[in-house]
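Worked example

This section walks through a single chain of length 207. The input is the sequence exactly as stored; nothing has been trimmed or padded.
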Amino acid sequence: SWTVFKGDITMTYEKALKHAHYEYSKVENLGEGAWHRAWKVTSDRHDSVVLRVPKKIAYQKEVVYDESALKAEYGGTEIYYRCVNAVVAGAAPEMFINYVSAELTYTLESFAGNHVDLHQLNKDDAHMLGENIGQLYRKVEQVEHGIEGFGFFAWNEEQGIHGQFSSNFHEFIEEECQEVMDDYHELSTKKPLFEIPQLKETLLRIC
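Given that input, the structure is written out below as tokens.
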């Protein structure tokens, strides 16, 4: 088996599959991202799923176990999938489960099919795909998710998953925009080449 974690925490994908009751399935390595390794799990007993296991080493540094960070990340993924599917059923994995502990951490989600090779799209197909995704995201933003706060997801025992900030949203945005304009003023004062009217107008319009 392929050992994913070494040292104090030794875990293999077989251990995760056994815990999730998928131990008799066929496993195909899908590769790895910055933070996880992934496998496609298939069987005539169930629909295809993807198993993801967090890596112990990422960006050449050891990843320290952080229960709150993992539960915030996975909880956010589950909410995102639910909101997307509320707009277009099946547009995101319809099954998503996760298990988080110091000894064993993994996620399982529906296999969504093979990826689209963007390099192979012609201009018309690329434009249509981008337009469809844009419309989807606009509608997803209108879905009621029931999560308190805003900003990055956070998690703790008392509140569960919630937004990182709990202050007034509009006041927060005004403060952030003022910081942006202050930073721009400082930059353009020190580096006059950035004193561009169109750039300043664009920043003001965004804020």
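What to look for: The longest strand covers residues 46-54.
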